[in-house]
Design goal:
Blueprint (H helix, E strand, L loop, with lengths): L10 E5 L3 H11 L6 E5 L5 H8 L3 E5 L7 H9 L10 E5 L4 H10 L3 E4 L4 H31 L1
Parallel strand pairs: 1-2, 1-3, 3-4, 4-5
């Protein structure tokens, strides 16, 4: 059986127009040995960074100038095959139900409300990465079983 990758091996993409939020997230992740984190404060760079990094998780702000988080999700969905599970964790101060519904419909998998609690952020990241790695493991098993027949 193939060993599951360590959660700390995950590739994480952070997209938030506020540099202070990006730095805070990097500081939250670093002591827990998440070493493969790429960040941008320019939402227009998100798609190129996604192509370069092929992340296991995207941490995404919704309200950004010029290109908002919904636009970023639309760009990413065009790059993600329909059978791929890519978790997107929304980081937002906007708690309106219609915004949450719209984000979930656009591909978000979870939310953290700003200002956020470090422990909650880490637990949500861990949960989403565990799910991501289980999906990847299942995909590999299906491929192996298909090759065996």
């Amino acid at each position: 059986m193939t060993q599951m990758p360590r959660l700390t091996d995950a590739r994480i993409l952070v997209v938030d127009d506020e540099r202070v939020n990006v730095v805070l997230l990097e500081r939250i992740l670093a002591p827990h040995e998440y070493g493969n984190v790429r960040s941008t404060t320019d939402a227009y760079q998100a798609a190129a960074l996604y192509d370069e990094l092929e992340p296991d998780l995207v941490l995404l702000d919704l309200h950004m100038p010029r290109l908002d988080g919904f636009g970023v999700m639309e760009q990413l969905q065009a790059r993600i095959s329909s059978d791929t599970f890519l978790p997107i964790l929304i980081l937002t101060a906007d708690i309106r139900p219609e915004v949450k519904r719209r984000a979930l419909a656009a591909g978000a998998k979870d939310f953290v409300t700003k200002p956020f609690d470090r422990t909650e952020v880490l637990l949500r990241i861990q949960n989403l990465l565990e799910t991501r790695f289980l999906h990847l493991r299942l995909d590999r098993q299906v491929v192996r079983e298909g090759q065996a027949t």
